[in-house]
Write a structure and sequence with these properties.
Length: about 60
């Protein structure tokens, strides 16, 4: 599982930008995520798929 901080470090972007993407629905290009307590988490395989989809321009 990945946190917003993990994703920010990997993508070399501000964590605020990560949260913006986490709050978008995946169909709109957001990162697929779920809540664990008060924090958002992302499954590693979902993040890898999202990154690949961003490269190819596909949504979902």
């Amino acid at each position: 599982m990945l946190t917003a901080d993990d994703i920010a470090k990997y993508l070399r972007i501000n964590v605020i930008r990560v949260y913006e993407n986490l709050n978008l629905k995946p169909i709109a290009g957001g990162i697929p995520s779920f809540k664990m307590g008060k924090q958002k988490r992302v499954l590693k395989q979902d993040f890898i798929k999202w990154v690949n989809d961003q490269r190819t321009g596909s949504l979902g």
